[in-house]
Amino acid sequence: MCRVVDLQQAVLAKNDASAHLLRAHLASRGTTVVNLLSSPGSGKTALLERELLLARQRSVPVAALTADLATENDATRLARSGVPVKQVLTDGLCHLEAAMLAGHLEGWLPEDTRLLFVENVGNLVCPASYDLGETLRVVLASVTEGEDKPLKYPTAFGLAQLVVVTKADIADAVEFDEDAFRANVERVNPGVEVVLTSARRERGVGTLLDRALAAAEGTPAHTPVMARTADAGHPHTHTGAADTGHSHAHAGHAHVHPAAAAAAADAVAPAPTRS
């Protein structure tokens, strides 16, 4: 068992090193990475398409890389926005890793890219463990997934710097309890911003772009309690794309120590859930 844990820690430590190098490289060229995590079917592609179109209308140089196990459907959809888009097929791997991302960006990412949106594989377990060199980590959940989603996936939501609720236009139809969802997010990640959106009705569209631009300009992102607890033993900083030297919380699971994981588990002790 110890050998398995040691191997996992070694893999994550290697990824952290790659993420650090990628973050520094992209910062030197003025590119900020936004890592988007969600379950399959959350609606993040639909929302991202609207955000990319808006960025183009605002003349913000953006690009998007989307990862899936198979098909190029999401890239085809995102390309309708008119911005540079690349599809990555992971051949069964349930997440992106920093070195993998760096390899796909080489020779493709336009030099003037201000924001790079990375649509991670639809999965709230594995992707939560891997830092991709991002400056802003966003977790999305649709109103159809239930108010207890943050409690079921405390690491993903606990390390988020922004939480986005999608498909808000059907919230009433599925009896989504917004107050309960917000309360559950607060339990695992106190103080993180929660934004309600509807790509279909244009509700909240532009908020993700605004938060990403703010991060690119050096505005400190939310620092999750889980990240602060994990980093207490070995604090560090990294610079964002604006290269202003401001400190960020590390989003990688390699620095989520057992104490932090235990704290997260305590935070999600039994709570009422919707049947």
Question: What distinguishing features does this structure have?
Answer:
single chain, 275 residues, alpha/beta, Rossmann fold, seven-stranded parallel sheet, 10 helices, 37% helix, 14% strand
The secondary structure category is alpha/beta
The CATH homologous superfamily corresponds to: P-loop containing nucleotide triphosphate hydrolases
Give the strand order, joined by hyphens, for the main sheet. 3-2-4-1-5-6-7
What is the succession of H and E elements? HEHEHEHEEHHEHEHHH
- Average of the residue pLDDT scores: 87
List unreliable stretches of 5+ residues. 233-263, 271-275
Termini Cα gap: 36 Å
What is the helical fraction, as a range of percent?
Answer: 25-40%
> What is the CATH topology?
Rossmann fold
Using the CA coordinates, give the radius of gyration. Answer: 18 Å
Characterize the quaternary organization of these chains.
single chain
% residues in beta strands: 5-15%
Number of domains: 1
Question: Secondary-structure blueprint of this entry?
Answer:
Blueprint: H1 2-28, E1 32-37, H2 44-57, E2 62-68, H3 73-79, E3 85-89, H4 98-105, E4 115-119, E5 136-142, H5 149-152, H6 154-158, E6 162-166, H7 178-188, E7 194-196, H8 207-216, H9 225-231, H10 258-267
Parallel strand pairs: 1-4, 1-5, 2-3, 2-4, 5-6, 6-7
Helix pairs in contact: 2-3, 9-10
